[in-house]
Amino acid sequence: MTEAEGIVGEFKSLKADSDTDVLAMQVGDFYEFFDDDAELVGEELDLKTSKKSSGGVKYPMAGVPVSELTPYLKALVERGYRVAVADQRETESGHVREITRVVTPGTLLDVTDADARYVAAVVEDDGVYGLAFADVTTGQFSVTTVDDEDARDGALTELYRFDPVEVLPGPRVREDDDLLGTIRDRTSATLTLHESSAFAPGQARHALTEQFGAASLESVDIEAAATVGAAGAIVDYVEETGTGLLASITRLQRYGDAAFAELDSTTQRNLELTETMQGGVEGSVYSVLDHTVTSPGGRRLKSWLQRPRQSRDTLDERLASVDALTGAALAREELREVLGDAYDLERLASKATSGSADAGDLLAVRDTLAVLPAVEEIIGNAPQLSDTPLEAIIERPDRDRAAKIRDTLDDALAEDPPKTVQEGGLLTRGYDEELDELIEGHEELERWFDTLEERERRQYDLRHVSVGRNKTDGYYIQIGKSAADEAPDHYENVKTLKNSERFRTDELAEREREIMRIEERRGELEYELFCELREQVADCAETLQDVGRALAEVDVLASLAVHAVENDWTCPTLAAPGEGIDIEAGRHPVVEQTTDFVPNDLSLSEQRVFLIVTGPNMSGKSTYMRQTALIVLLAQIGSFVPARSARIGLVDGIYTRVGALDELAQGRSTFMVEMQELSKILHAATDESLVILDEVGRGTATYDGISIAWAATEYLHNEVHAKTLFATHYHELTTLADHLDRVANVHVAADERDGEVTFLRTVRDGPTDRSYGIHVADLAGVPGPVVDRSNTVLQRLREEKAIEAKGSGGGGSAETKQVVFDVGSGQMTTASADGGDAATADAADPGETGGSDLLTEQFGEDAADVLDELSAVDIAETSPIELMSAVQEWRERLDD
Ligand SMILES: Nc1ncnc2c1ncn2[C@@H]1O[C@H](COP(=O)(O)OP(=O)(O)OP(=O)(O)O)[C@@H](O)[C@H]1O
Description:
Bound molecules: adenosine-5'-triphosphate
Structural class: alpha/beta
CATH architecture of the domain at 573-779: 3-Layer(aba) Sandwich
CATH class of the domain at 573-779: Alpha Beta
């Protein structure tokens, strides 16, 4: 077997054992990819491939120099591949190659973007879902259990919220193709099948105990086998990658429903919290609100938005901090300036624990630790900020320990260290005695070489002499050709160049050996000392993470204050759950940025729980409802809100159902999605929730739609008691306010003069019966004849309605008429029910036939009875379903 065959064979066998997508195998100074892997990297990374012969077969081959692997690795992993790296080691019997680490999307440390990078595990056990999320770049590790009726949906919501880069599905989840499909559709995560045994509760609990210790595991108190399985599997997985990342995960956090208000994935999308409906960040609430100056701050703000709080204490504290910061302009700007010097400490801590931090990283740790006392000082010195919860935030981390690490780093690190850690020059003088001696020795020798030229020139009266050093020849004395024969006898000629000769002397060789010995020892020693220093930092990972989190929190609070000041937001007053919501002059946080916004009030109370919002198309109904949801949400992350004043009874969840834009693309029926979402809300909302319904029922036939909207309103009002805003174009629903105590009508006003409609954007009490849909069609450029014809048809339909309305109340007065609209001809025929004239609306001459005769002629003998029954129906007392079946029956009788 040739060496080449051996290598390809070795590559294949290592690959077969590795369970990864790609293997990079070190061969001397290169990492090589062979066969399919070579083709893959060739295509993905534009690497040049060549051929390698093996057993008569030519295999594709691609390679990168050892020192350049990292960017390629990163590019592959960011494209979703799992990559194994096999390193080469020298032993007495030759080379040995073995896989030393596996890099996957969830365990890639060398990331440049600010977003969190979670690896998630999701396990199902008897209908209960356990989820765990670890961000190895920051050490965040959170677990939760979802075990309510819609546990599967809840699990998806969590996955959507964390948006992991890699998901490890548990054994049963792997068989749930539908769930896996949704994860693929809704997140950009790579799915990784980790060994099933790692998810088993026994083994998983063991892994967790090893990682966090029995006591902290007990205090976190995770009971559900599914959650233990998910958390344990992640620990096992991260360990197996061999990247040394596990050490960064120091704390296990369990979060449950109680602390946070429910905000499902649909609602997050509907409210465009972190992304717009179209998918971009620009134009989202986050993009508008974000004035943070550090990437951990930005990350934190995003997670606050996605996870509003229910706990009044936390929120009051945050609000008090934001309030103080709004009133301390100077200190606030100072804080932001100082915070601007902070690096991503959580990530740096992870790099230290995994052993990949270089001297620049440790300097960044030092400089960021110095930010903490600076922040503390600013807060302490500003009368508006001292004695606020901001102080408590800064006091949370172990500041003594943080100061100690900072001092250690300060004493140790050179100010401008080289990028590689093996070169020397990393550490300062005075840090280590032996190192100092070496440095001194080195400098002395350098001086000797620096002055050699001068000495030799003088001593031997040499012309054209110089001293140099290069890799192949080491140190040498060089004399120009013309003067070369003047070289003294003890000069040994080592090289002849075109214009000069190179010489060495015994003394020079001796000094050279000395300087090389010192350089080697200095490199080794510095590296050793540096590793020790890095380990010291790694041992304090938890403190570093705490400092990082505290700084991030101050950054977010200052950012919220900046936004509040710049946009004239107000501090909301928080009230107990279940109390009302009163907003005076509220605005939409995003729309107000680009529009001359008309503020609106809102009042929901125990007596007024359910608002039916009507108004023309495009008048601002959706905006009004969304701004309400956003104001409540902002209050529940501890932010000021866009309003003149706001009193918010805390909610336990915000649920929304608005138009489904993107579901069609996923091949799901719009109406089906609408009903699934409605169903979820009706199940999940409570009397402490806020529900936003935008045009529920629109996706089906009008009668079905009205019936569903009607019944849903009754249910939410009578059974759930959730605070609800319901926008609708079904004006029939506005009558519900007359029959249900706590339902009220509001409408967004529009002004119509001489056929011209002006949107006033003002919300007023009471219903409206106009949609101005045709006006919007006109605005949208629908052809003139269609718009005109729509107006004619509308006019006639309105007449019909007016007449019916009279008839249904008066029960057969002389005015009562029946209208027949013939779709075929577009003609409207009216007839007096008491035997008066019948007329074709458009026709000049009235018809000859009497009303009841006409009815009998058109609809048969039953017509009069049906009419009687119809006028006897008490609409308020009849359920929509009964109404529908009565209408169906009448129609059948009339058709017979
Ligand atoms: N209070 C307001 N002040 C200024 N502009 C507003 C206000 N409310 C809404 N708008 C603007 O009016 C437009 C229509 O608003 P919105 O989509 O809320 O209308 P809608 O009544 O829900 O429409 P439809 O019934 O057709 O769904 C949006 O472009 C929005 O920017």
